[in-house]
Write a structure and sequence with these properties.
Elements (H helix, E strand, L loop, with lengths): L12 H8 L6 E8 L4 E10 L2 E12 L2 E8 L4 E8 L5 E9 L6 E7 L3 E8 L5 E9 L3 E10 L4 E13 L2 E8 L4 E9 L7 E9 L7 E3 L2 E8 L10 E8 L2
Antiparallel strand pairs: 1-2, 2-3, 3-4, 4-5, 5-6, 6-7, 7-8, 8-9, 9-10, 10-11, 11-12, 12-13, 13-14, 15-16, 16-17
């Protein structure tokens, strides 16, 4: 695969994961083992209040194909097949769920030194189709995403994003909900080993005219500046606080 920009889904992902991922107050127990034939087995039991859930997943890699199968206590069987380099610089991901066949989908990803493109379609008669494209480099990238409903022949979504990534920091801005909302995030690692980091996220929806005030009549403004002609230089970020009596 190339060393170009990441996928559109990667824009803002580091900050989003740090804010929301793997924070769990429930009791969870997992056991993993690997066989000599290369099969990985994982058993998980989760206790959430008075509700108990369990699943068994297996993973097997054969040449350029990876097979994932997961079975839970609700008799759901989820299968994911990932094939890399089926064509040069491409990856294909097919997922199926039994008995909910309507959730099955196929995704194809293409990677280039200066661009990435993905196409995802539900495997049913009138599928929803998602397309994404990202241009740039690992340091700075611009991306767009669109969803199309083949039944109603209308766009279900279109989003735009920009991401700037440095070894110790990253920032992103996403214009989403058909250009009706904006989300900006910033992550700063606090040490060289990247074991600690600070992250902030600001979200605003235009149609509802939402304004978040730190204190009554007090407004926080965050601004940024990027010179696309000198990408080797760090971007500038500013913070201002307006207090009204």
């Amino acid at each position: 695969m190339s060393k170009g920009p990441g996928l559109f889904a990667d824009i803002g992902k580091k900050a989003r994961d740090l804010l929301t991922r793997d924070y769990n107050t429930d009791h969870k127990f997992s056991i993993s083992t690997n066989t000599l034939s290369g099969v990985a087995l994982t058993s998980t039991v989760l206790e959430k209040g008075v509700v108990h859930a369990a699943d068994v997943s297996t993973q097997y890699k054969y040449r350029n194909a990876l097979f994932d199968v997961k079975i839970d206590t609700d008799s759901n069987v989820m299968t994911t097949i990932t094939i890399t380099e089926i064509l040069p610089s491409t990856k294909a991901i097919a997922s199926f769920k039994v008995p909910d066949y309507n959730s099955s989908k196929l995704e194809v990803q293409y990677f280039h030194d200066h661009a990435t493109v993905t196409a995802t379609a539900a495997l049913k008669q009138n599928p929803l189709v998602d397309l994404t494209a990202t241009l740039g480099s690992p340091t700075i990238s611009f991306g767009a995403e669109a969803g199309y409903d083949t039944t109603s022949r209308s766009f279900t979504k279109y989003n735009f994003g920009i991401s700037v990534t440095k070894p110790d920091k990253c920032a992103s801005v996403i214009l989403g909900d058909k250009a009706d909302s904006i989300k900006a995030s910033y992550l700063q690692h606090l040490d060289e080993s990247k074991r600690s980091a600070a992250v902030g996220e600001v979200y605003r929806k235009f149609s509802t005219n939402e304004n978040h005030e730190v204190l009554p009549k007090s407004i926080v403004t965050i601004s940024g500046e990027i010179d696309t002609k000198t990408l080797d230089k760090y971007p500038r970020f500013g913070l201002s606080l307006a207090l009204k009596p």
